[in-house]
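Onboarding guide, step 5: your first structure request.
Type a short instruction followed by the sequence, for example:

Predict the 3D structure of this protein.
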Amino acid sequence: MRERGLTDRALGETAKLSFTTIQNLRRGFGGQAGIGTLWSVAHALGVRPAWLAYGDEPMTELEGIFDETEELFRRLPPADRKALIKKLAGEC
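The system replies with structure tokens like these:
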């Protein structure tokens, strides 16, 4: 939370949860927290709920998307790559 620049109080406000709930979660007393609480905290932090709950990678939805996009681009035939670059350049 601190890495994201949020205090416990600010995270609680963003997640629409009490300061006490956030403190309890941070201290490891969130064993009875429901999926709604988990989702609210994850959304407020900008991370995936599965990452927050279990450490499942990737941390965010967008993480790794550039690698996947690059791989798909490299699989295109050279003529299609050139056409796509030309089209994207025209949209900028």
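Each response can be followed by summary notes, for example: The mean pLDDT is 84.
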